[in-house]
Write a structure and sequence with these properties.
Elements: H1 8-17, E1 32-36, H2 41-51, E2 55-62, E3 73-77, E4 88-95, H3 100-111, E5 116-123, H4 126-132, E6 138-143, H5 163-172, H6 174-179
Parallel strand pairs: 1-2, 1-4, 4-5, 5-6
Antiparallel strand pairs: 2-3
Helix pairs in contact: 1-2, 2-5
Amino acid sequence: MIGKFADLTALAEKLAAAVPDELVGSHLIAPIVVALLPAGSAPGIAVANRLRAPLRWVAVTEAAEGELARSGLAVVLDDLPADLAGAAVFVVVAAVETGQAARVIANELRARGAGTLTLLAGVVPRDSEVSLRPLFDQIVALVRPLGRRSAIWHFETYAPEPLATAQAAVIANRSQEAGSEGKVQP
């Protein structure tokens, strides 16, 4: 095995199991899981199941001229209110490389009023984690390598779904969220 995970499904199972017990429960204010697509689809569904929280998606794209000019990235959020009113938001990422996407997402969610932000990721390099600490209240990572490597290095098979397929999987689970006591299916 080249990396630490067989594939994104194996990561999903391990990441959901790694959610600290103190983060699970009704004491959280309006918990919501936001999965970075496309690779975060399966892990996002697994974490949403564990937290019994609604699942939404986020995509990060290149910014149009003048839009977030500093980072060059724009955030596309799925059906999230403009005001998160102190919600506990869990950002699920398969693997962080530079941390740039996670920073842009955190800034957008804070601007929308997220109360607490928790980053849940399979891989967060230690040098990237340092720059993310001020933005997230908690970072849960399964692997913390000393240096950055491409996300693919950490997986025996790294085959994220196409973005449209990952979006459809997350959206399709919404009807199941309410009907199965918050449990969604991959």
